[in-house]
From TrEMBL, chain A:
GO terms for molecular function: electron transfer activity; heme binding; metal ion binding; oxidoreductase activity. It comes from Caldibacillus thermoamylovorans. It is found in: Membrane. Residues 179-253 form the Cytochrome c domain. The gene is qcrC. InterPro entries: Cyt_b/b6_C (IPR005798), Cyt_b/b6_C_sf (IPR036150), Cyt_c-like_dom (IPR009056), Cyt_c-like_dom_sf (IPR036909), Cytb/b6-like_sf (IPR027387), Cytochrome_c550/c551-like (IPR051811). This is Menaquinol-cytochrome c reductase cytochrome b/c subunit. Residues 28-155 form the Cytochrome b/b6 C-terminal region profile domain. It is a multi-pass membrane protein.
TrEMBL record, chain B:
Its main location: membrane. The main subunits of the menaquinol:cytochrome c complex are a Rieske-type iron-sulfur protein (QcrA), a cytochrome b (QcrB) and a cytochrome c (QcrC). The chain crosses the membrane at residues 39-67, 96-114, 126-146, 193-215. GO terms for molecular function: electron transfer activity; metal ion binding; oxidoreductase activity. This is Menaquinol:cytochrome c reductase cytochrome b subunit. The gene is qcrB. GO terms for biological process: respiratory electron transport chain. It comes from the Bacteria. PROSITE patterns: CYTB_NTER (PS51002).
Amino acid sequence: MKRGKGMKFVGDSRVPINNRKPNIPKDYSEYPGKTEAFYPDFLLKEWMVGAVFLIGFLCLVVVEPPPLERIADPTDTSYIPMPDWYFLFLYQLLKYSFASGPYNILGAFIIPGLAFTALLLAPFLDRGPKRRPLDRPFATGFMLLAICAIFYLTWEAAGHHDWEAAKKQGMIREVVEVDKEDPAYKILEANTCLSCHGGNLEGGSGPPLAGTKLSVDEIKDIAKNGKGSMPPGIFQGTDEELQQIAEFIKSIEK
Amino acid sequence: MLNKVYDWIDERLDITPLWRDVADHEVPEHVNPAHHFSAFVYCFGGLTFFVVVIQVLSGMFLSMYYVPDIERAWESVYYLQNQVAFGQIVRGMHHWGASIVIVMMFLHTLRVFFQGAYKKPRELNWIVGVLIFFVMLALGLTGYLLPWDMKALNATKVTLDIAQSTPLIGDMLKTLLSGDEHIVGAETLTRFFAIHVFFLPAALLGLIGLHFLMIRKQGISGPL
């Protein structure tokens, strides 16, 4: 290869070659030992590490499909929000009484702001020439403290979150349009059934009623006496109406 | 054949010094895991970059199907995940990559911090690195909204509430992010999409370029 020597250009206006910086690799005599050429020897090793990493990563991708909840519904205000896991420590901080409400500015801005500014300016806060962690106890100590705080807050946030309920509230539901002109539907509406079980009985904070496997009598029993977190006595209508809605619910196929 | 093509180009553009500047250097012993296994801690930075490459590539493929519109965003993601061949894999790579990149970056930051590698003359590179960290968190935040499912919408509402509680500029900041004073909807989605796909990646690539330039200029920090 000629490496660009002897180039002749028409109308050459470039800086002449003798003014260019010589292309000499960095002197690594300050780090004596078994140095290795980056290209191609070390690069190949890096690629092998990358390949092993990629295999592990793809195993994770194949085993755990990415989650997708039901389409955003701005009218559903009962949903309990949750940020992605790496924001949980900031989210948890905002739950403490000393960092929320009137002190929101402390939890949302001052504490994280101080921590992140200190991180950004670390080279100017820790200026000594010493590099070993034990030789700079303040830098090491504050960083260990921050790591402990992050882990603790994340742990607390994850522990207080009801993962089962979160899974249920986000599930993709198959919505089958029900006949909203049916008199039985009006009865359901009047007895506030729909506010928990959804306008198409597809479920909400309560379980879906569409496609239930229960018998008419069981539906009547639950409507009157409740079940789980549903208190008894929500249904206020007559026995005739009760029969009507039970048959209506039974008739809705999934 | 390849050599001839190379020579033809090199004769005209003198490209040899370009790649020599990037590739011609020695790797010192103390960062080479082949000599000291504990030097694997030096891999975290490179693996972070590797995941960034995965994110860019998978994101490019996702954008072939994704529609940033409140009526179609969720439908397009659902279609991608359930109908498109390997759509679930591509979306999975982008989803999990977003988490793994945070983990790798965290480890890389801790390695640099506890080794005191940010000290003179490498202060500027530390600052650029922390800025990359912030950009990455912002990418995670904006990307969370894009599937337009329940958790996306509700997490974004919380984020916007926090942004709104900023002293002095809170209302303006919220309007800037969500596109409206009150509504979190169509315009919020397009703004987050633009920020996630254009503004932040541009900033990220520029900062990563600076990060690497400074490493080449200064060399890696010496052994402890």
